[in-house]
Amino acid sequence: xxxxxxxxxxxxxxxxxxxxxxxxxxxxxxxxxxxxxxxxxxxxxxxxxxxxxxxxxxxxxxxxxxxxxxxxxxxxxxxxxxxxxxxxxxxxxxxxxxxxxxxxxxxxxxxxxxxxxxxxxxxxxxxxxxxxxxxxxxxxxxxxxxxxxxxxxxxxxxxxxxxxxxxxxxxxxxxxxxxxxxxxxxxxxxxxxxxxxxxxxxxxxxxxxxxxxxxxxxxxxxxxxxxxxxxxxxxxxxxxxxxxxxxxxxxxxxxxxxxxxxxxxxxxxxxxxxxxxxxxxxxxxxxxxxxxxxxxxxxxxxxxxxxxxxxxxxxxxxxxxxxxxxxxxxxxxx
Length: 334
Ligand code: AQP
Prior knowledge:
The chain is mainly alpha-helical. The protein has two domains: 13-189 and 301-331, 3-Layer(aba) Sandwich (Rossmann fold), CATH 3.40.50; 216-296, Tyrosyl-Transfer RNA Synthetase (Orthogonal Bundle). Helix content is 53%, strand content 7%. The protein has 13 helices and five strands. The protein has helices at residues 26-39, 51-54, 61-78, 95-104, 109-113, 116-121, 129-143, 157-174, 218-226, 244-257, 261-267, 273-299, 302-331, and strands at residues 13-19, 44-50, 85-89, 149-151, 182-184. Helix 8 links the parallel strand 4 and strand 5. Helix 10 (244-257) packs across helix 12 (273-299). The protein is globular. The protein starts with 12 loop residues before the first strand and ends with a helix. Adenosine-5'-tetraphosphate is lined by residues 18-19, 21-22, 27-28, 30-32, 50, 152-153, 155-156, 190-192, 201-205.
């Protein structure tokens, strides 16, 4: 065999996922979900809920189950179209773990120890081996579907780079098998910062004051934006070094309104932070309300959500198993 895998022909392929490690926030939406929705008309999309990545830090089993379904419902509520996108749960496709293991056997320990996300999170006590091996599982998540692109936020770029390195390594050792995918980042807003500390990334696990959840009620959104950290001075100007707080809010405004940052600066010239923040809060309430309504209605029928995920897993497994058949043959598994 020479790497013919019968994988999706025709349309280019895109793959991405989000961890079921808590409540999704507007950073996840801007950096990832909004891109998925835009790309699904052009690409064959595989989108998954990363439950196996979520457990790289301890999760309560009931919360994990709930979060997994919540993420599924949010994806659909945000606009994923199940006719265009294959939506599934990572653990429902066992090939992710199998290929992840195989890629571990090709990955020098030092490469994993150098990953920024590992370095940041391994400062915590009791860090688990799963956190170190997260990037090889992520490489497997991607390579199984032989995608052309991986739409992600900026924090995941290093992991996509490692994915390319591993694809190259596998190909050079065992013969051409995997494509080397490219990350796809938004031009603006690829890294949304925490609203209580604009020098840190907005993160699910960093506490609810650092993020605006996609499911936050209107009054919570208004309160969080009102108290979002801004900078000294009063000018509404994009300047990440000197005005990280207002720059972050401008990125959020721009992503949700579709207006460029330059045009927002013009619109708010001479106006104060209060006016800008109040407009931003109303914009978020207006954009998130329909998503929240749809989300609540989807969660009323969990059986139907499970059916959607079962169908997605069936389609994903078909593709993943074909890739694994080639991998088995190449590396000598009988
Ligand atoms: N702040 C962000 N700005 C832009 N994009 C972001 N993403 C995450 N945070 C931001 C993108 O969302 C996708 C899914 O991320 P994930 O949940 O799988 O992992 P993460 O990047 O580790 O996200 P969190 O919120 O920081 O999760 P925790 O706290 O659980 O580790 C990815 O494409 C990511 O780039």
